[in-house]
Amino acid sequence: MKSVAVLYGGISAEREVSLASGRQVIVALESAGYAVRPVEVGPDITRTIAALDPRPDAVFNALHGRFGEDGSIQGVLDWLGIPYTHSGVRASALAMDKAAAKAVFAAAGLPVARGGVVDIAALEHADPMPLPYVVKPVNEGSSVGVEILREGGNRRAAVATGWRFGPVAMVEEYIPGRELTVGVMGDQALTVTEIDPTVGFYDYEAKYADGGSRHLIPAPVHPMIFARAKDVALAAHRALGCRGASRADFRYDDTAGEPGRLVLLEINTQPGLTPTSLLPEQAAHCGVDFPALCAWMVEHAACRA
Fold first, then answer.
1. Annotated active-site positions, please?
2. Judgement on whether residues 19 and 154 belong to the same structural domain of the protein
């Protein structure tokens, strides 16, 4: 029986999401016939390394956010020579750094939003681009810290002074319209989901709270956009050098009519695996249930050592 250590928890702002993902994965892998070793990760990396002795056949990386999907734990596992799920060091680091990922996407000819990185101190005093625009951390996930600044608002200075995500921020044009996402498994884009938040935009609460959003699968969008979203998701996965499963997030502006404008926002190299998560839902839509999805990830585990 193949032994699998599941890393979950971590020390990022997404710890609670990771704990939820890890619990789901543990149950799924046990039902799929693996010998599972849960490893709840905390601030002491030496304890995590010690928990991997004896060495498992593979590590299922269910960590989210900084130190879990930014290449940090991937480098540790490469050093130890233990195969692990999801992407390697380089792809993980690139995807987590929104500015670096955006540069790769633009170089590959993929559609990205206008904008760039600004000093948060400068944001306090002036708008860096015409309103409305989006302010978000360069190195966070799950919409942590995302703010939308609109015409007639007076929140810019408050956002800047309350910023807790480092000295810089990503600032991008606000794309009106709809939220789309596409999961990728290996060399196959799964399908397109439209995400309809019940209140506001697709923020942390909408992603993880019961009833926070509706998922329309397959997305009711123009066929040209449906096919284009799948093509761009797979191209972005390849451009970053991702491995295993990933998920691409898009904005789709059809406010002036179809087919409209499709914009790639980011790639998630560690897609959520909670009860409300999108990748498992898309896999199930394509005939792959949750235990089979987790088993597929384990069987495609690898390391760069």
1. 14, 142, 208, 247, 249, 266, 268, 272
2. no
